[in-house]
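Weekly modeling sync, notes
Attendees: S.R. (lead), two postdocs, one rotation student

Agenda item 3: backlog of single-chain predictions. S.R. asked that every request posted to the team notebook include the full sequence so nobody has to chase files. The rotation student volunteered to paste the first one in as an example of the format we agreed on. Action items at the bottom.

Example entry:
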Amino acid sequence: MQTPRLRSLRLFAIIILLIGMVGCATTEQRTGPLNPEDPWEDTNRNIYAFNDALDRNVFIPVAEAYAFVVPQPVRTCINNIFLNLGEVWSFINSNLQGRHEDAINTFGRFMLNTTMGLGGCFDLASSNGAPRISNDFGTTLGVWGVEPGPFVVLPIIGASTVRDTGGRVVDLYVNQVGWGQLVTNIDLRNSMYGLELIDRRESLLDVTKTIDKNAIDRYSFIRDAYLQRRKALVRGTRGAQELPSYEDFQDAPADEKSLGIQKAK
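Predicted structure, as returned to the notebook:
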């Protein structure tokens, strides 16, 4: 059993490693004038460099190993199950926003996929013309009239705004911690949290490669894509679900046109 002293030393070693990775990361420089929606850009770019170093040295290798070991049909099933669990929170937020038609469609998706789709393993709803309507509490706050505030990059989590950061706290508590509490076995619960994290990252590998290959400034692209999608979701613009975002790229097809990428010349 590890002593508190040993655990402290291991934590200190991890922190030193992360700092070293950040030091090795290349921070992308601003290529144009300051964006009024991003007044903290210099700080945000430094945090982005930290996140990028952590991602490339830890999360991507783990996600690639997961993709190598686990067959595609199994990965698709796991991804669908986690997305299906999120339908309940999307249903609640659609109702809170007064978008009751979206709420009904989301509830129908959840019931069909949970029953006929074997707990969500098979996305029968999308196959039958009922696309997933992603929703969260940050969007709800926006519909209620709360201004987004400045763009901010959160450590590890990534792109956000001041408003969406508050929304994420509620999302995390309800949509992750909430359903996780239904699993009383702590080891199993933590394993499920870890599997969800790896599954989410694995589903974005192709998009990451596309951005790396074609985006002139990855930071600016991620920021602009995130803000564009969040505004569209608050407005309820038809087609907003297909716009790319930093934390949920799996809702967008991984091709250059849909990602809005301009090739470097």
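Discussion: group reviewed the output briefly. The chain has one domain: 59-247.
Action items: rotation student to repeat for the remaining queue; S.R. to check formatting next week.
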